[in-house]
Amino acid sequence: MSEKNCVIVVGAGPAGSSTAMGALRAGAAVTIIDRKTNVGIPVQCGEAIGKTGPGLAEISVPEESIRATVRGFRVYSPGQIAVDYAEKEPSGYIVDRRVFDKELFARATEAGADSLLGARFLDITRSKGVVNGVIVRHDGQRKTLEAKVVIGADGVNSQIARFTGLRKSYKPADIDSCFAYEMANCELEVTDLMEFLLGNEVSPRGYIWIFPKGNGRANVGIGIGGTIETKTAKEYLDHFLKHHDVAKRQLSQAKVIEKRVGALPVCGPNKTNVVDGALLVGDAAGHVHPITGGGMGYAMVCGNIAGRVTAECIMKGQVSAKHLQQYEDEWRKIYGSEFEQSLKLRELILKTDDATLDKLAGIVTGESIVRMTAGKKVKIFMKAMATGDKHLIALMNELRKLRMV
Amino acid sequence: MPPTTSTKKSTKKLADIDGELCGICQACATVCPVNAIEVTESYLIVIPEKCTGCGVCVKVCPVGAITLIER
Ligand SMILES: Cc1cc2nc3c(=O)[nH]c(=O)nc-3n(C[C@H](O)[C@H](O)[C@H](O)COP(=O)(O)OP(=O)(O)OC[C@H]3O[C@@H](n4cnc5c(N)ncnc54)[C@H](O)[C@@H]3O)c2cc1C
Ligand code: SF4
Ligand code: SF4
Fold first, then answer.
1. ipTM for the complex shown
2. Domain A4-71+91-169+269-338, CATH 3.50.50.60 — does that match?
3. Which residues contact B69 (CB under 8 A, 6 or more apart)?
4. Residues with CB under 6 A from ligand 1
5. Does B59 contact A169 at a Cβ distance shorter than 8 Å?
6. For A311-324, what is each residue's pLDDT tens digit?
7. Chain centroid offset of residue A337 CA
8. Closest B-chain CA to A175
9. A298: number of Cβ within 10 Å
């Protein structure tokens, strides 16, 4: 069986639905396919949006998915020094990903996209080296779908990335292994800040998060480095819930209402995301902040760009990598340096011991954490020097090399 | 064809996934050097002909659902 389409988007997550929207607005015909029959399920996410990458004004978050508004965050250093950051106005949302993903997908179909659910991508087809379709398994059968351009929005384990040669397997150090609970009956000390806990004991090479979801509910999770073999992510989170002061104060009466797992790419975007006749977007492209792990906002903005550029290339009849490169250039212009800087900063933080992170927490403000995670320069050098601590000063010298202090 | 780099079996071992523990996060599949783990909506399939028994997938699983078994 063979069908002719303009754009085939593989993956109905935020990246796929946003790409479809971008392409539809620019006049292309789109089919979204997903192996799932229930888009948005299972939830594998912290569900926070607006604080990493694009701000709330740059993305349209479906109203019905919003569970709580947040104004900022509270970061606990390994020694439990808390640094707060709060804006006057709400600057982020905690959403219900189930509703969020489903709404974005539904809206793309309402805007004209065709959908094919329960269709698992198996392979790409090529003509003269140019990608011109996909082979899927649907209704128990192999089917070939033709396309002018194939969009790989198929998430962290993107098979399109592998089959096009745009990415090989990740190394364990490239990903975080994640586990989370949705909890009810929480007694949160702050209901409009996202809480983060760092430290080798609580979450080696990653962090624990507690995100308020309103009505005493919270998304409580952990990401640990893929190289960590001492305990599983679940074991680390369970240990935290039982023994850590911050958990005891807020979650001792909490009940688990959902269990979640996840895999997060934390090594920055792929070198390139375009080949002749295909491109990658979202997690497939590595559009995830290497420190915060946020990816939804990037997926939406980059998706929109990808969709528009794809449609424009199809109109011109030029779908080679050279022409699709316009997408790569556009998203890199906005986020390229943010990803590069934060990747370097991540490597630096991973090398820094807990005691020095505590000292750093003693001299930074919430504002400087925001600037640093966005890859921007902060004024903490003099304060660090004043402590006379040689490890902290060494860290400053490293930050100086990155032009961050 | 998928770009598998090697189908040679380095050991007599094979990755075995406990389907009741697995939450389909795909961490294992992303690090598998030979793309031996296929992911469907509701379960994972380890392709025995591809799996080399290297064990990389075991360490990244957030819930410890993977073990290496004798072939
Ligand atoms: C534990 C965890 C916590 C996170 N917390 C946050 C957070 O708080 N805020 C934030 O912004 N980001 C967070 N992220 C990152 C965020 O979840 C991702 O960046 C985002 O989901 C990426 O969207 P996507 O559309 O690229 O991929 P996905 O949402 O993964 O969608 C991919 C889609 O492709 C489909 N698919 C995959 N393979 C195939 C195939 N072979 N055939 C057909 N369909 C296929 C899947 O079924 C899926 O529907 C978190 C991630 C994890 C793991
Ligand atoms: S043991 Fe190695 S080859 Fe086999 S599935 Fe795991 S990572 Fe892949
Ligand atoms: S890493 Fe573990 S939980 Fe995740 S998909 Fe693989 S077996 Fe399942």
1. 0.94
2. yes
3. B13, B14, B15, B16
4. A 10-16, 33-36, 39, 44-49, 52, 120-121, 153-155, 159, 178, 180, 221, 262-264, 282-284, 288, 293-297, 299
5. no
6. 999 999 999 999 99
7. 17
8. B27
9. 29
